[in-house]
Amino acid sequence: MSFQYKNVLVTGATSGLGLALAEKMIEVGCFVIAVARREDRLKALAEKHGADKVAAEPFDMTNLDGMPAWVEKMTKTYPKLDSIVLNAGIQRSIKFTQPSSISLPLVNQEIITNYTSPLTMSILFLPHLQSLSPAPASIILVSSGLAFVPMPRCASYCATKAAIHSLAWTMRYQLSADEGSKHVKVVEIIPPAVKTELHTQQEDLSAKGIGQIGISIEEFMEDAWTGLTEGKEEIPVGKFVKDRAENEAERGRKKIMLGMIETLKAQGMDP
């Protein structure tokens, strides 16, 4: 199989996983709408690949008030847009033992960037993606292996990724069960720690010389791209994450969810 989407919007497209995914999609012939805050990096990406392959669209994912107008602009400017990759994310450390050291504005920024923004963007882009029926469309969410087993140091980050994992399950069920929406696939890429700026930008890690942790970008792309081209809806990356995504506890959770849905339907309730 091959990657079936041709016009893809990627958030966080100028570094790390977002850049790797964007450049791979460009390589296989997709037109990529690259979204990020840093205009200099967007310009460099556009100049590298050319205007016929990539469009640079600067936007701050925390700007929730401006998002409705921006999404409307995107769908009007790029009417063939058939997939959105919601990748932008930040990770910060929290020390509950030192509550006075916790910046609540930074905590809220992390929650908005990692969860509220992808949720809001999914809702705002859905009418456009639904209108493409019966042609395939997709919402591709990037979560984390920390959605399964949280790391105490980055408590808020883990909580947001667990929320994205749960959101993928529920949004996927709703859309797949609706005749006018089932062409919109909800895909979740679940990476382990990867050597990107997500870690090197954290002062507490860099000061200890351990900012470069995890697998390489190349290793990430091997699993992620295989899953995307095979049309998988849940794509765990690397052995650590695969073991947790496919273990008995996770399978049990899915079974319980489906059982709960059937119980509610049997009682005449909307699950």
TrEMBL record:
Keywords: NADP, Oxidoreductase. Gene3D superfamilies: NAD(P)-binding Rossmann-like Domain. Coiled coil: none annotated. GO terms for molecular function: oxidoreductase activity. Pfam families: adh_short. SUPFAM superfamilies: NAD(P)-binding Rossmann-fold domains (SSF51735). The keyword NADP applies. The keyword Oxidoreductase applies. PROSITE patterns: ADH_SHORT. Belongs to the short-chain dehydrogenases/reductases (SDR) family. PANTHER family: 5-KETO-D-GLUCONATE 5-REDUCTASE, SHORT-CHAIN DEHYDROGENASE_OXIDOREDUCTASE. This is Uncharacterized protein.
